[in-house]
Amino acid sequence: MIRIAVESDAQQIAEVHVRSWKETYTGIVKQDVLDDLSVAKRLALWQQIIPHRDHQLFVYEKNGKILGFLDGYLNPDNDVAEIRAFYLLKSIQGEGIGRAMFEKFQQLIRPEHHRKIRLEVINKNPSRYFYEKMGGKAVGEEDASDLGEGITEIFYQWGMDKDQK
C-alpha cells in the first residue's frame, strides 16, 4: 500500500533510509560516509519533514512495515518540484512500486505551478537507469568526490507540459 506518511512513520522511514544507503552504496561510496549514517540523525530529519506542508512524503507499507519512501518537495519559490529522497529496499525493487510512487507524486503536481520535476542521483547508483526508463532526461552533473573517487551527482528532469514530456 502506498500512502502519505504520518508523524508516527518517522522511525521506520529513518531505518529504511539508512538501510537503503548501506544496501546500495557499500563498495561505491567511502566507507566512513556509510559508517557515519545513523538512524537517530535521520529520525530527526524525517520528524521535521513529515509535517512540512510543502513536502509530500509517500511510503510503501506492507504488513505494517515501511519498505520504501519518496519525499517530493513542491517548492513554493520556483517552478521546479523536487524529489529529494527516493528509497526502496532491495527486496522490493523491480516490482513496480517505484513507478507507482513516482506517478502518485507526479499526479499532485499542477503544471501552472511546477513545470518540471527534478532529482539528483549518484552516477554509480545502478537504480539511476530507472529514472531514464521513467522518461527523465539527464540535464547536468556535479562533482561529489567527497563521497568517493569518481562519484558525481546526475540531475534528472521531467517536463510537466505536454511539449516537455
UniProtKB/TrEMBL annotation:
One GO molecular function term of this record is:
acyltransferase activity, transferring groups other than amino-acyl groups
Superkingdom of the source species:
Bacteria
Q: Where is the N-acetyltransferase domain?
A: 1-161
Name of protein: GNAT family N-acetyltransferase
Q: Which SUPFAM superfamilies match?
A: Acyl-CoA N-acyltransferases (Nat)
Query: What are the protein's UniProt keywords?
Result: Acyltransferase, Transferase
Q: Which InterPro entries match?
A: Acyl_CoA_acyltransferase (IPR016181), GNAT_dom (IPR000182)
What organism is this sequence from?
A: Acinetobacter rongchengensis
